[in-house]
Design a protein that fits this description.
Length: 482
Amino acid sequence: MKGAGTWVRVRKWGVVSAASCGRQNRGFGVEVIALYASCVAGNLVEQLWNIAWPSAVALLHPSLLPVAFLGFFAKLAIFVGGPLVGKLMDHFPRVPAYNCLSSVQAAAQLVSVALIIHAHSVPVNSASSVLMQPWFAVLVLVGAIERLSGLALGVAMERDWVVQLAGTNRPIALAQANAIISRIDLLCEIAGASLFGILLSRYDSVTCLKLAAGLMIGALPVVLLLTWLSNKLSAGVLDRPKSPQCCGKTVIEYPFQNAGNFVQISTDAIKHGWMEYKHQPVLPASLAYVLLYFNVVLTPGGLMTAFLTQRGLNPSIIGGFSGLCAFMGVAATFISASLVKRFGILKAGALGLIFQASLLTIAVAVYCSGSLSRHTPLLFFLFLIVLSRLGHMSYDVVGAQILQTGIPPSKANLIGTTEVSVASLAEFVMFGVAIIANDVSHFGFLAVLSLSSVVGATWLFCRWLVNPTDEQKRLFSFDPQF
């Protein structure tokens, strides 16, 4: 299999690769730099779009219903279709599948732009009338396709390709590569939000959407070119199909080649994804990751923003709170690799979870004391949440490496997309609870529920850590813990 012997080592900038089967060292990791650049181009457009579409749809009518409806079906699509998309990614060669999904995502975004621009030219009487429009039904469909494509692309990059270049037996190299990928994602989130904010302050929403569409069109060939270049420079390691071997030849199994019943095959794929997820050797670490998604209140999200607005907090402080949380996430990517190097992968994950749970416990105690009616305790409450993001993002990076180490490469996309599907279900449930307990007076109840999920994740992971199985010891034999 071409490129199967590729290995990497860490330098000041990132990861440097060389092929071991008699090939010369390729220098300073140009293939990895190309992969990072592809990630930057794709993530910047995606993060810009994640800000652009809710803002543009919200301007159609002074109601949250259209945005909530689109978000609801996007989560539902990820929950239902995630395992199927992961199975497809695990059966097809990596680079063609990645390029195809990149094109599908860009096409879905462009169709969404056209539909929203059309919606701004049509007068609406109520939020419910928006939901009944034919263009809105199409927008829901292409929005779900866009989210599923983005899910598969993210899993392929973070759970598959990075592992192929770094190797699970090189924990420090893999930790630094994961940190760089997370750093790129967070910086693109900040840049995308800032860019669209600048555009929206100077132009109307339709013009901003047209400019965003131009960026999408321009970024797609850049992503495809950089992906091809990274694969070419790494001796084709990214393009290895992960299908079974037969008689020394690669046999690619296409799931729908002779399919007569797409629904049956889709159902089987989803069941298979859930079964593989359930029996993965690092399930406790994955469940801890999923439990953190139940925390939808003590984070810089929509519910926290609504709560702070109801408290009459200055909008600049609310914006600063969100920005500081994002920058804290960037800082966490710098320290996660150091934690892995000093304490090992498993202890580093436990430290991140314990740090987050401890600070959020203090934050909830401050809230329950009833002192948030004063300015200083409220700022202290927000400061604790900001600081807790260090622990959250540290585990996000380290937890990804634990899953990369424990999941077989042949099942990386399937299990990864199924995990994201389960996480979407967690968010779905918590938003349902928030809809029922929608009064601001119930914020304390929601905060306690969110804290309970973080504490539960910490307990589950630490219990797995102190009672290691034989399989756990085998997978993490290089870890100082063992």
